[in-house]
Design goal:
The protein is of the alpha/beta class. About 45% of the residues lie in helices and about 10% in strands. It has eleven helices and eight strands. Helix 5 (about 85-105) packs parallel to helix 7 (about 165-185). The protein is globular, with a radius of gyration of 18 Å. It starts with a strand and ends in a 10-residue tail after the last helix.
Length: about 300
C-alpha cells in the first residue's frame, strides 16, 4: 500500500491522546474488530486479558514528547509511508473521503468520526477501556479508539502476518461500524445474544464487508482537497494481508488459540472463513448493497 507522497494529511480527523493519564476501568462498549475480545472471553469463557497475553492497560503520565504527535509529525503522504501513526491518519482520511462521497452519491449525508489514538487506557462515552480490549467503535460519542500497540499483538498474539494493509483493514472495519451507526443498523447487535447466527456476528461481518467496499475504491477515491487519490497503489499482497488479519481475529481461531476448543454458541464476530468471505464480497463488488449480512 502506497500513499501519494505530496498529499496533505488532515490530522483533524485523528485525536492523539497517547501519554495522557486517563483513569482505567471496565469497558462497557461493543462493536470493535476484535472489539471486546478480552472482555467477551472473560464473560463467556472465563479467560482474562492476562491469559490472552495482552497488555495490562495501565495509564501513563503525559509527557511533552508523547502528546499530540500526529499533529506535529504527520503532514504529508510521505510521512504516512514511513510512520505507523501517520499511516493511520492517512487511512482514516481515505476511508472517510470514500464514505463522504458514497453517502453523497446516495443522496445522504456522512457525518465524520474521529479516531482517538491512546496508550494504556482511555475514557469514552461508552465507559473506560484499556488496551486489552482492542480497537473499538463507541456509538455513544461516535469515535473510533485505537492503541497502536494492538498491531504488534495482532501479529505476535493472534498470528497475523501483519503489514500496512492489515492495519488499514482494522481501521476500515471500525469505520464500517460507524457507517452502520449512521444507517441505524448498529443497534441490532445490542440484543446480548451470541452464536454463529447472532445479530452480533452479522453486524461484525457487515463491517468486514464495508471494509472491503472501501478497499475496492481506495485507489480511485479522490482526496476532498486535492482531487487525487490519497492511496496510489494497493497490491494483491496487501489484500492478502488484510484477509489474513480478518482470519486471525475469527472467533474459531481465537478460541482454538486461547482455550483449545471451538464453541460456536459463544461467537460474537464470526469465523475466520466468514470474515474473509465478507471482506472479499465487499472488495469484489465494491457495492455496499451487497453487504446485507442480515438477509
Amino acid at each position: 500500500m502506497q500513499f501519494d507522497d505530496d498529499a496533505n494529511l488532515d490530522t483533524s480527523e485523528v485525536q492523539d491522546v497517547r501519554g495522557s493519564r486517563i483513569p482505567g476501568g471496565r469497558a462497557t462498549i461493543g462493536g470493535g474488530i476484535v472489539g471486546l475480545i478480552a472482555l467477551l472471553l472473560g464473560l463467556f469463557l472465563g479467560v482474562g486479558p492476562d491469559q490472552l497475553g495482552l497488555s495490562s492497560g495501565g495509564s501513563a503520565e503525559p509527557t511533552a514528547s508523547s502528546l499530540a504527535q500526529v499533529q506535529q509529525t504527520c503532514r504529508t503522504g510521505r510521512d504516512a509511508n514511513t510512520r505507523d501513526d501517520c499511516r493511520i491518519v492517512a487511512v482514516v482520511n481515505s476511508v472517510q473521503d470514500y464514505w463522504t462521497q458514497e453517502f453523497r452519491r446516495r443522496r445522504g449525508t456522512y457525518t465524520g468520526s474521529p479516531t482517538v489514538l491512546f496508550s494504556g487506557g482511555v475514557g469514552t462515552a461508552c465507559g473506560a477501556a484499556n488496551s486489552a480490549v482492542g480497537p473499538f467503535y463507541c456509538p455513544g460519542d461516535r469515535k473510533v479508539y485505537l492503541d497502536l500497540g494492538f498491531f504488534d499483538e495482532l501479529r505476535t498474539k493472534f498470528g497475523s502476518t501483519g503489514g500496512p494493509f492489515a492495519q488499514a483493514y482494522v481501521v476500515a472495519h471500525e469505520y464500517g461500524h460507524h457507517v452502520q451507526d449512521l444507517l441505524g443498523v448498529l443497534g441490532r447487535s445490542q440484543d446480548g445474544l451470541t452464536g454463529a447466527n447472532s445479530n452480533s456476528v452479522r453486524t461484525e461481518l457487515q463491517a468486514d464487508c464495508y471494509a472491503g467496499v472501501w478497499a475496492r475504491h481506495a485507489t480511485t477515491t479522490p482526496d476532498e482537497s486535492t482531487g487525487r487519490p490519497l492511496i496510489t497503489s494497493l497490491r494483491a499482497a496487501d489484500i492478502r494481508d488484510g484477509l489474513d488479519a480478518a482470519a486471525a481475529v475469527g472467533d474459531d481461531r481465537i478460541q482454538e488459540r486461547f482455550q483449545g476448543r471451538v464453541t460456536p454458541d459463544t461467537w460474537t464476530h464470526g469465523s475466520a472463513q466468514q470474515r474473509q468471505q465478507w471482506f472479499q464480497e465487499g472488495y469484489r463488488t465494491g457495492d455496499m448493497k451487497q453487504c446485507d449480512t442480515f438477509r
